[in-house]
Amino acid sequence: MTAIQQRLSFILQSPSDNIEDKLLKVCQLLDAEIEYYNWTGFYFRNGDKEELVLGPFVGAATDHTVIPFGKGICGQVAVSNETFVVPDVNEQSNYLSCSIDTKAEIVVPIIKDGKNIGQIDIDSHTHNPFTDEDKALLEWLCEEVAKIM
């Protein structure tokens, strides 16, 4: 387990915080520790509706507080249930622009009991910054988040 995984695990296992507080602390840690993570947030399924609702996040405010399944990268991941790495958002026809500064995005689903309950969404102001290590870290994180949901 890497040092950042240990710190994330500590946050998620904290008995004193509620889930919202834990997820906000996760966003804050990722934002502080990984310089090319410029917007970090969680979206969660809105009950039985086929839409995502913005949860805890760190970064600039966004107009995208509710995202229908299939719309944008987050909406695509809600349908596919697979991690989606976008090296250059300008090459994606289904991209929902949150900021003119965003150059790349990674979205990883949170799967619990075989169902997509949400996802983590990270935007970067750098073209093609996300590595296999980022993907592995975020997939591990989403597995851990699923355990506390």
From TrEMBL:
<keyword id="KW-0560">Oxidoreductase</keyword>
<dbReference type="Pfam" id="PF01590">
    <property type="entry name" value="GAF"/>
</dbReference>
<feature type="domain" description="GAF">
    <location>
        <begin position="60"/>
        <end position="147"/>
    </location>
</feature>
<dbReference type="GO" id="GO:0033745">
    <property type="term" value="F:L-methionine-(R)-S-oxide reductase activity"/>
</dbReference>
<dbReference type="InterPro" id="IPR029016">
    <property type="entry name" value="GAF-like_dom_sf"/>
</dbReference>
<dbReference type="InterPro" id="IPR003018">
    <property type="entry name" value="GAF"/>
</dbReference>
<protein>
    <submittedName>
        <fullName>Free methionine-R-sulfoxide reductase</fullName>
        <ecNumber>1.8.4.14</ecNumber>
    </submittedName>
</protein>
